[in-house]
Write a structure and sequence with these properties.
The chain is mainly alpha-helical. It has one domain. The chain is 74% helix and 0% strand. The longest helix has 20 residues, at 93-112. It is globular.
Length: 113
């Protein structure tokens, strides 16, 4: 599927992956997967809201609705992670994305306890 997106942008799959951050590539892969992760999508695309994903429908909408219905979704924490990712030099962005995801995962695990 990534190769189809790359062809649409007149580039190779590797070119597509180099063109975008690892977070963006992960989010696109999640959008195209049968089991999308709405948090990954929201973290990569700051202009998209949880309600946008719900309105999208399909498996993405279902994933977003489950988060919304859980009542434990913390948009301020997500926005803070987005700012941390965007706040440094581009060469550090993949590391910052991984670190932010790890922090998000740890904060969600605490909510499950």
């Amino acid at each position: 599927m990534i190769s189809d997106l790359a062809r649409a942008q007149d580039t190779s799959s590797q070119g597509f992956i180099r063109r975008y951050s690892s977070g963006t590539v992960d989010a696109v892969a999640s959008l195209l997967s049968p089991h999308p992760n709405a948090e990954t999508i929201l973290l990569a695309f700051p202009s998209i809201s949880l309600l946008d994903l719900v309105d999208l429908g399909g498996t993405v909408g279902t994933s977003a609705q489950e988060i919304r219905d859980s009542g434990s979704y913390d948009m301020s924490a997500l926005n803070s992670l987005r700012q941390k990712i965007a706040g440094s030099a581009d060469e550090d962005q993949p590391r910052r994305t991984r670190d932010a995801r790890a922090r998000l995962g740890r904060s969600r695990a605490k909510d499950d306890v």
